[in-house]
C-alpha cells in the first residue's frame, strides 16, 4: 500500500490581468502556499480496473472526480490495460471552497500511481495532464511556497525558498454553495482586476524580511469584490473575523471560504469558539514550509 498526502492550497496573492490572451482566458499571477490541512489517499494494487472509494459522500463521482480522471488519464498514457488500483480518499479539505481540494487530490493521485505502477513522466506528459486537469493541479504537483504564472494554457512555477511566519489561520466556510470557478471568471469586472499587481513584489519582500505586518498588508485576491457582491455572506465572515481578533482576512481562491490570520493558537481558538456555531465549518490551520 502507498499513501500520499494532498495539501490544501491558499493563494496569498491572486492577480488576474485584465486583458484576455489568445485562448480567451485571463493571464494570472499568484503567490501560493500550502496548508497543513490535508486529504489522505491510499493506493493498493489490483489488476486492470481502477476503483475509487471516499469517506465523504459529497465528493463528485466519475467524470466530475479529478482523482478518477487523473488515474484513468495516467493509465491511458502508460498504454497498459493490465494496470489497476484501488484508491481510497480520506477527505478533510472543504469541497469547492477555494482550496483546490480536487486538484491537490489529483496531483497526489498521479504521484501515488507513478510509484505503484513504477512509471515516470516527463514535462511534456505533465503538460498534457495539466491541460486536462487544470492549473491548480499543476501548482499542487510541485506545491510549496511558489509564484505561479499562467497564460495561453502555459503555466510556470517559480519556487520562492523562504518561510512564512508561524501564524495561525482560521478557515470559515459558509453554508452557501458557489457556482463554478469558470462562472466567477466570466463575471469579473475588468475595471476592478489587475490593479494591485505591485502587491506581489511587496508581499515577497515582506516574506523575505519576515515582516509580519507587511505580509498582512499585502495579502490580496482579485476575486473579492465580485464574490462579496454576489455572496454577501463572505463579507459578513470577513467582518466577523475582524471582530473576533483576526489581524487580516482573505477570500480563499474564488471562494466561498474566508481565511483569518492570527498571531497564535490561543487567538485562533478564541475566534473559533465565537464563530463555530454561525457557519458550516470552522477549521484552524497553518502554512507549511
Give a verbal description of the structure.
There is one protein chain. By secondary structure, the protein is of the alpha+beta class. The chain has 10 helices and 11 strands. Strands 1, 2, 3, 4, 5, 6 and 8 form a 7-stranded mixed β-sheet that branches. It has a 4-stranded antiparallel β-sheet with strand order 9-10-7-11, covered by helices on one side. The longest helix has 16 residues, at 101-116.
Give the overall shape. globular
**Per CATH, which architecture of the largest domain?**
2-Layer Sandwich
DSSP strand content: 25-35%
Q: How many individual β-strands?
A: 11
SSE blueprint:
Blueprint (H helix, E strand, L loop, with lengths): L1 E15 L11 E18 L4 E5 L11 H13 L6 E6 L10 H16 L6 H11 L1 H8 L3 E6 L2 E6 L8 E6 L7 H6 L11 H11 L3 H6 L2 E2 L2 H7 L1 H12 L4 E4 L6 E5 L2 H11 L5 E5 L4
Parallel strand pairs: 1-8, 3-4
Antiparallel strand pairs: 1-2, 2-4, 2-5, 5-6, 7-10, 7-11, 9-10
Helix pairs in contact: 1-2, 2-4, 3-4, 8-9
List keywords for this structure.
4-stranded antiparallel β-sheet, 11 strands, 7-stranded mixed β-sheet, Ribosomal Protein S5, domain 2, 289 residues, 35% helix, 2 domains, single chain, alpha+beta, Alpha-Beta Plaits
Summarize, please:
With 289 residues, this protein is α+β, with helices and mostly antiparallel strands. It has 10 helices and 11 strands.
Amino acid at each position: 500500500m502507498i499513501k500520499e498526502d494532498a495539501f490544501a492550497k491558499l493563494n496569498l496573492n491572486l492577480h488576474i490581468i485584465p486583458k484576455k490572451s489568445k485562448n480567451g482566458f485571463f493571464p494570472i499571477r499568484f503567490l501560493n502556499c500550502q496548508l497543513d490541512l490535508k486529504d489522505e489517499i491510499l493506493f493498493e494494487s489490483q489488476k486492470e480496473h481502477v476503483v475509487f472509494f471516499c469517506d465523504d459522500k459529497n465528493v463528485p463521482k466519475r467524470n466530475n472526480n479529478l482523482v478518477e480522471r487523473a488515474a484513468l488519464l495516467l493509465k491511458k498514457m502508460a498504454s497498459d490495460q493490465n494496470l489497476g488500483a484501488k484508491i481510497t480518499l480520506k477527505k478533510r479539505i472543504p469541497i469547492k471552497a477555494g482550496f483546490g481540494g480536487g486538484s491537490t487530490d489529483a496531483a497526489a493521485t498521479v504521484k501515488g500511481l507513478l510509484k505503484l505502477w513504477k512509471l515516470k513522466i516527463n514535462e511534456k506528459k505533465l503538460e498534457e495532464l495539466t491541460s486536462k486537469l487544470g492549473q491548480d493541479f499543476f501548482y499542487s504537483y510541485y506545491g510549496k511556497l511558489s509564484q505561479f504564472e499562467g497564460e495561453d494554457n502555459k503555466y510556470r512555477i517559480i519556487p520562492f525558498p523562504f518561510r512564512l511566519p508561524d501564524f495561525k489561520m482560521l478557515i470559515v466556510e459558509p453554508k452557501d454553495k458557489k457556482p463554478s470557478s469558470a462562472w466567477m471568471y466570466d463575471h469579473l469586472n475588468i475595471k476592478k482586476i489587475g490593479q494591485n499587481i505591485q502587491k506581489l513584489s511587496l508581499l515577497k519582500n515582506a516574506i523575505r524580511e519576515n515582516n509580519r505586518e507587511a505580509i498582512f498588508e499585502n495579502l490580496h485576491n482579485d476575486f473579492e469584490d465580485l464574490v462579496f457582491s454576489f455572496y454577501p455572506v463572505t463579507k459578513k465572515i470577513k467582518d466577523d473575523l475582524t471582530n473576533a481578533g483576526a489581524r487580516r482576512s482573505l477570500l480563499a481562491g474564488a471562494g466561498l471560504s474566508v481565511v483569518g490570520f492570527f498571531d497564535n493558537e490561543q487567538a485562533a481558538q478564541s475566534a473559533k469558539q465565537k464563530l463555530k456555531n454561525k457557519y458550516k465549518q470552522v477549521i484552524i490551520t497553518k502554512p507549511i514550509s
